[in-house]
Amino acid sequence: MCPLKVTSLLTNIFPVHDLTCFSAVAGSIFTCAGILILLFCFKIKISWHKCLSFWESKAEDHRKIEAFLNNHGSYAPKRYNYSEVKKITSCFKNKLGQGGFGIVYGGSLDNGSQVAVKVLNELNGSGEEFINEVESISRTSHVNIVSLVGFCFEGRKRALVYEFMPNGSLEKFIYEERSENVRQLGWPVLYKIALGIARGLEYLHRGCITRILHFDIKPHNILLDEDFCPKISDFGLAKLCVKKESIVSMLGARGTIGYIAPEIVCRNLGGVSHKSDVYSYGMMVLEMVGGRKNVDAGADRTSEIYFPHWLYRRIEQDEELQLIGIMNEEEKEYAKKMVMVSLCCIQTDPLNRPSMTKVMEMSEGNLDSMQIPPKPYLYTSSRTEVDSSAVELAYSLSAVLSAVILL
């Protein structure tokens, strides 16, 4: 009904002296109704735009992935269709684990080979992780890099088929109960694992035709075979660059809080490069050494909250490391060597960190020839003692900042 007809109807109902007041009220009602209609239409438009943008993005991801697979057919491993993936996993019967981007199932190929199949979430991620994984691992061949057997890309169905690692991830072996004096893995095995990871990273940084930066080195992404030989996995955040390129550009932070190099979070600390993987490696090995997270708010003494700080003080004062499970002089040497190398790796300035080639040389070299590395960033040159609560606060603020940037 149009406004003129409504006004005419109101004239017949209400007296003339009340019409002016009522016209004002009616005008307000019509105005409010118009605004509500506009808001409703605007909401529908926004919802439609979001939905359209989402599916356009997925369609663009599909085109990018297909174009990549066509251009890199000679490098790409075997391509499976989804029905084959279901057959390999016996209809996804044996679940091995779950991560942020999908679920991992156990399976077997026709030749009897055991595999692990990561089925990616259909509506999670931009497709970049899938391309990174296939492109990165397809360019590698190394005993300390997990092998990608094949992949599935069929519509919105995506899966990655890896060689099976019987002992799972390093993560489940290194975090010890603080009251125990026996480690799950002895010091010779821990040292062997640390050295193997270093060899794998050195290969990614120098041994490939294209340098590969992993950007997510952590215990969860290190897999162990039946002999506890470590293999670097999960290249979803990896970045490829030319060998001579030392600094790479990134639009945002990538990695896991607790292992992210400082320059990735705060770019004025230095350029992002292969040295960012070195930092993550150092933080990870320190957790292997301590059998604990590097930050432990539940530690018995405040001086033990930030583990690298506690270790550095003991090294600096030439005190016993008091680490779990050291039984003899050989194991003591393994432990101290791992600590010294790790403290070199976690220097805040990337220029002060060794390359992975140097890390291997130090790890395999003579302990007596190693010098105490410079003090980490959380120390100040004017003080020999640093309040542990301040260290904890600084680390916590760094973690929060990392989380905000990652969002």
From TrEMBL:
Entry's Gene Ontology molecular function annotations: ATP binding; protein serine/threonine kinase activity
Subcellular location: Membrane
UniProt superkingdom: Eukaryota
Top enzyme category: transferase
InterPro entries: Kinase-like_dom_sf, LRK10/LRL21-25-like, Prot_kinase_dom, Protein_kinase_ATP_BS, Ser-Thr/Tyr_kinase_cat_dom, Ser/Thr_kinase_AS
Extent of the signal sequence: none
Membrane topology category: Single-pass type I membrane protein
Domain (Protein kinase): residue spans on this chain: 90-378
Its EC number(s): 2.7.11.1
GO cellular component terms, A-Z: membrane
Transmembrane stretches, start-end: 22-42
PROSITE patterns hit by this protein: PROTEIN_KINASE_ATP, PROTEIN_KINASE_DOM, PROTEIN_KINASE_ST
Catalytic activity, as annotated: L-seryl-[protein] + ATP = O-phospho-L-seryl-[protein] + ADP + H(+); L-threonyl-[protein] + ATP = O-phospho-L-threonyl-[protein] + ADP + H(+)
Coiled-coil intervals, chain numbering: none
Residues annotated for ATP binding in this entry: 118
Keywords: ATP-binding, Disulfide bond, EGF-like domain, Glycoprotein, Kinase, Membrane, Nucleotide-binding, Receptor, Serine/threonine-protein kinase, Signal, Transferase, Transmembrane, Transmembrane helix
Family stated for the protein in its record: Belongs to the protein kinase superfamily.
Protein name: non-specific serine/threonine protein kinase
Organism: Capsicum annuum (Capsicum pepper)
